[in-house]
Design brief:
The protein contains four helices and no strands. The protein starts with 5 loop residues before the first helix and ends in a 46-residue tail after the last helix.
């Protein structure tokens, strides 16, 4: 970071674990319910900030939230190295159109 305020920010981030430990200790000793509620809410905020600034945790969380990768079957296409035998070598886009022969249907005995 080239910003002049990066040093205080790094020091504040480094102090978060100590602040969390002190808040946890104070919340167990505090007798006043209002003070305990305040300490617990501040402790919750410190924990959240620690989680958000932890890049390793953030990367793990994003991997967990990603949708599972579905394996799709490969399409049924002939292998590129294997060529199909050319059954109709004379056919192609420029070939002349040929009429199909008429096939006689067998007569039905029911009629």
């Amino acid at each position: 970071m080239s910003w002049s305020g990066s040093r205080p920010l790094r020091e504040a981030i480094a102090g978060l674990p100590e602040a969390r430990a002190r808040l946890e200790e104070l919340s167990t000793v505090a007798a006043d319910p209002e003070l305990r509620e305040l300490l617990v809410s501040v402790l919750s905020t410190v924990k959240r900030v620690e989680r958000e600034l932890d890049l390793a945790h953030r990367a793990r969380r994003q991997l967990q939230l990603r949708r599972p990768h579905r394996h799709r079957p490969l399409p049924l296409r002939p292998h590129a190295a294997r060529q199909r035998p050319d059954i109709f070598p004379e056919s192609g886009p420029e070939a002349e159109t040929v009429r199909m022969p008429v096939v006689e249907r067998p007569a039905d005995d029911d009629e």
